[in-house]
């Protein structure tokens, strides 16, 4: 069966559609003539700040932005806005109403589709649907907590749009009472100098001294596994950490999603590129699913941001456009939200879309002492040297930390994180010297002990009480810094 691009097909059907002010910011005949659009985006590539500063990037940014605006215009023509497009979870999966339950799934290769014993019908565009009315006693025919099995051809599947699962099994979740949030989402933008992230299991969303952001473990799309935690308990946990001033972010692992979606309807190219083992970010329903995943967690669970992992955009312009749309959506739904991208050799990841970038707040780097760029996060999985860990602390651009009892927590508390202090970085005798407020960090990334002479007086060394130094005169000292070690001097 050939893939039907629903976005293109639908946009062709509505070329003269009148978009009212009520349902769209972009209601003029040409969406790109709207004043609010022009305030948010810049179409003239020569006016982009990144191109003005780095003209050698013009071609790659121009090609990417042209595709971005093509997709954006298509979304607006069909759905009126990215926010509406990203409400797929209100259209697909299991939609409960006062009269019954509607189940919808996109499965273009299916010859037959059933939900439990209920047969679905198709619109011949890949969408399948069944409505299950309430019984004569005004009760839903599927009870809360029941198993939901989608029979797609000869396969048994859990709906791609499942919200609740028990292991691999989709569950119909419709309790009489649901937990209502007491707190609000992120109220103040976490600055690059002050973002400190601790990774925790989704069942362990608790306060950790020295951090201001918690990253909970990746869930598979919108699917919360009740073997780990129920929706109500997760909401309660998020409420608790929001009440303490913490932000809560979630990782989106595109490799995990790709593996789950592969061959869902029996074809190799439903959600994946035909002949390739990667998500097809240029497909309408792939974009709808991925963007709806973001919208769902922000709207339903008050997630404050996301870390995007395992996505290769080097040779995939569609993937880059998806990330631009994702950032646009995040900061539209949640102006103070956080978006983080893994370390990629790709230009202007952390510039705004209007400046010509992809719109991320932070890029995630391994702990390397040459990474002095702003908006950088450093990842520590417990195997890095003391020099690398201190480097992340000293630069102050943030840290994603796995080990909860690491001494860096103590250093952060002692230094007060220096959130408002400027950072001065230079190198002397192969020792990186980083000055931050009243503290100086001396970091030796080499595999040899290094002797250095410093033109200041040492009052106190915070992290190594037995460190020796020689006072040459009142304002000059000589000391040796061991290989892959560092000192915090006050």
UniProtKB/TrEMBL annotation:
This is Uncharacterized protein. GO terms for molecular function: 1,4-alpha-glucan branching enzyme activity. GO terms for cellular component: cytoplasm. The lineage of its organism: Eukaryota, Sar, Alveolata, Ciliophora, Intramacronucleata. It comes from the Eukaryota. GO terms for biological process: carbohydrate metabolic process.
């Amino acid at each position: 069966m050939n893939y039907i691009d629903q976005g293109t097909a639908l946009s062709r059907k509505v070329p003269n559609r009148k978009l009212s002010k009520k349902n769209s910011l972009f209601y003029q005949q040409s969406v790109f003539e709207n004043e609010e659009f022009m305030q948010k985006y810049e179409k003239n590539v020569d006016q982009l700040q990144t191109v003005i500063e780095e003209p050698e990037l013009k071609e790659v940014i121009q090609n990417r932005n042209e595709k971005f605006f093509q997709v954006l215009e298509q979304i607006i023509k069909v759905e009126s806005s990215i926010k509406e497009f990203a409400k797929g979870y209100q259209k697909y999966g299991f939609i409960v109403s006062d009269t019954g339950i509607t189940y919808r799934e996109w499965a273009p290769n299916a010859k037959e589709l059933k939900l439990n014993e209920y047969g679905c019908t198709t619109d011949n565009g890949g969408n399948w649907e069944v409505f299950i009315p309430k019984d004569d006693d005004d009760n839903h025919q599927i009870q809360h907590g029941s198993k939901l099995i989608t029979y797609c051809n000869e396969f048994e599947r859990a709906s791609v749009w499942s919200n609740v699962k028990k292991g691999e099994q989709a569950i119909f979740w419709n309790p009489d009472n649901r937990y209502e949030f007491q707190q609000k989402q992120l109220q103040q933008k976490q600055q690059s100098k002050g973002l400190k992230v601790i990774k925790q299991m989704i069942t362990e969303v608790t306060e950790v001294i020295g951090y201001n952001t918690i990253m909970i473990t990746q869930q598979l799309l919108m699917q919360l596994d009740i073997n780990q935690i129920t929706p109500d308990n997760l909401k309660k946990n998020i409420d608790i950490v929001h009440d303490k001033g913490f932000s809560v972010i979630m990782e989106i692992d595109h490799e995990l999603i790709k593996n789950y979606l592969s061959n869902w309807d029996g074809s190799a190219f439903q959600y994946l590129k035909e002949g390739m083992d990667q998500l097809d970010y240029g497909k309408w329903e792939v974009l709808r699913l991925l963007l709806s995943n973001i919208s769902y967690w922000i709207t339903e669970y008050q997630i404050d941001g996301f870390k995007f992992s395992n996505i290769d955009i080097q040779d995939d312009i569609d993937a880059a456009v998806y990330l631009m749309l994702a950032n646009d959506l995040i900061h539209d739904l949640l102006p103070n939200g956080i978006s983080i991208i893994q370390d990629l050799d790709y230009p202007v990841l952390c510039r705004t879309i209007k400046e010509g970038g992809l719109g991320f707040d932070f890029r995630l780097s391994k702990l390397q002492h040459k990474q002095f760029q702003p908006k950088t996060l450093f990842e520590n999985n417990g195997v890095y040297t003391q020099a690398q860990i201190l480097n992340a602390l000293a630069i102050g651009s943030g840290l994603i930390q796995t080990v909860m009892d690491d001494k860096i927590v103590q250093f952060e508390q002692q230094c007060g994180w220096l959130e408002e202090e400027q950072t001065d970085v230079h190198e002397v005798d192969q020792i990186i010297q980083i000055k931050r407020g009243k503290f100086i960090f001396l970091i030796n990334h080499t595999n040899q002990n290094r002797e250095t002479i410093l033109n200041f007086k040492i009052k106190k060394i915070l992290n190594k009480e037995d460190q020796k130094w020689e006072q040459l005169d009142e304002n000059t000292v000589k000391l040796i810094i061991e290989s892959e070690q560092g000192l915090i001097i006050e």
